[in-house]
Amino acid sequence: MNIEDDFRDLAPLDPGRDAVRWESMVGAITRAAQPELARRSRMPAPGMLMLLSDWMRPAVSTAALLAAAAGTFLLTEQQTTATASTATTAGLADALYPVPVATWMDAGQAPSLEDMVTALEGDGQ
Fold first, then answer.
1. Residues 119/98, Cβ–Cβ less than 8 Å
2. Residue of 3, 19, 53, 115 with fewest CB within 10 Å of its CB?
3. Tens of pLDDT, residues 71-103
4. Residue 93's CB: how many other CB atoms inside 10 A?
């Protein structure tokens, strides 16, 4: 398909064809906008405080939402930390020390000399 096959004549949209009609449309739009333009000209120029006051409400609501989310997070974190602290201690002892040493630590008892030698040298020696 070629652009010339389905060409539409856009000449009626040309404002230069009927200058009187064009100027009357511009005048009608200007007259209709005159009250709003007058109202805006009487308003003070927006200064820094006016711009900041426009942002005050969204900023305060966002801060309140973030504070509520942080409070909820802290409350749930304290509850999960209290229940997980005992499991973490046992898991840490198992991860850092050999099994017999972790068993002694969990039981809260002192190892015998034989247990210490076995733990240090291994069972095979």
1. yes
2. 3
3. 888 888 776 665 555 555 556 655 666 667 777
4. 15
**DSSP annotation of 71:** H
Q: Spell out the residues 6+ positions from residue 101 whose beta carbon is closer than 8 angstroms to its own.
A: 93, 111, 119
Cα–Cα distance list, 95 to 6, 98, 99 (Å): 79, 8, 9
Structure tokens at 99: 């099994």
43 Cα distance to chain centroid? 36
Helices (H), the chain: 19-42, 48-96, 99-107, 113-121
Spell out, as residue ranges, where the chain has pLDDT lower than 70: 1-5, 79-99, 122-125
Is the whole model's pTM more than 0.70, yes or no?
Answer: no
Q: List Cα–Cα distances, 41 to 18, 19, 45, 52, in angstroms.
A: 33, 30, 9, 21
95 phi/psi in degrees, rounded to 5: -80, -35
